[in-house]
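Data availability (excerpt). All sequences and predicted token strings are deposited with the supplementary files. A representative entry, HTH cro/C1-type domain-containing protein, is shown inline so that the format can be inspected without opening the archive.
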Amino acid sequence: MTLLDIDPAQATSGEAAGDALLLGRRVRALRTSRGLTLEQLARAVDRAPSQLSAIENGKREPRLPMLRSLAVALGVTVDTLLDTEAPSERAALEIAVERAQRGTVFQSLGLQPIRVSKATSDETLQAILGLHQEVERLHRERAATPEEARRANTELRAQMRSVGNYFAELEGAATGLLDSVGYAGGPVSQQTIANISERLGFSLHYVSDMPHSTRSVIDRRNGRVYLSGAVPSRDARAPILRALASVVCGHEEPSSYGEFLRQRVEANYLAGAVLLPEAAAVPLLAEAKQQRQISMEDLRDAFGVSYEMAAHRFTNLASERLGLEVHFMKAHESGTLIKAYENDGVRFPSDALGNFEGATVCRNWTARTVFGQPDRFNPWYQYTDMAAGGTYWCTSRVEKAKEGQYSVSVGVRFSDVKWFRGRETAHRSQSFCPDDQCCRQASAELTRKWEAAAWPEAATPTSLLAALPTGTFPGVDAHEVYAFLESHE
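Structure token line:
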């Protein structure tokens, strides 16, 4: 909803309690409804008309004795004066304009605020609000720098780490969805997901003209979930669940980049919690731990999901249910870290703000050495001795995506490797990163030979100079989405 679609209750919610503007408009509305002039009410409460005018205009907040005097003079209770709902739609509109003009964004423009009076039309007030809303949007876009995005992401990762990447409310929501359709165990079928969708009031539609900037689109008005027809049905379960997460989790339009990232994490978590239910996955993992044979492949095969989802789901349950601290990495073949999580103390590469994603992974880590292995059928196991932090063990696999190949790795400290399959591996490496001499500098011999002769052209990423994606849902073309929904309604 925009500021142009003001609902009186919503316009005065939250900050309304004790709001001088709201109180002033209520006093004015009660005074005029009783046929009293400003001077008459001022005499009744033993105050100067100018003082009462300041109260009605929201420029002065009366103390409790004054509130009591006003309530008596107007024949109401103090609670009535402090009601959090605007007395009328017009009053709500005036309050919104006054708040906008008193805000930092409006004041930064250096404009003289207009005086809101009875003679000011609704159209004028709505126009002011509309312009103010657009200026605020532009300020938010200007503030949405890559630094802000990385900072929001770092804060989110810290929150995930503090709870061991386990969210009880989402686990409960996933269990409730499965119980509602009679799930009895085993891999969660496509039909089960379709039943969940129907239970939530949505039908599934596969289309060939999905907006290019979206994975799925929900039409809340008509109860439809649109997915690309190019997605094989066996792989559609996760996209459907991620789409429905907005309904299950009660997501509203994100008001910040941090909220957008949080919603995306919740959607991915819910999908994993449904496809690998806690009640079924924990006993399997607990048995594997007892047998000292924990394996991401076994978890993947038991529930018919991707290796990445199995690995990520393992991080949800490892600390809370198995007492294991772990780390997870997804790295592109170029060495760029795409996703990362840890609560086992491993030191991921990071930028100055402490953000992992986008940093370069050491060439000697499992997430990079796996790309050099000819055997892609079996998992790659490796110990890595860190310059600081001891020894870590990782299991890793290479997956394919439209952006190229990437590795998915799960690892633990040396002290916890006894619970995992692959602990007997003889593969071992050393990492001295962030020391450039570890893996980023060529040998002295090669440097002397080529440094004056080499002139490479950088494959500059298209995003290098691009602004951070903007909009309510960053990176999504709203015009394209609305046109799509209109064509399918």
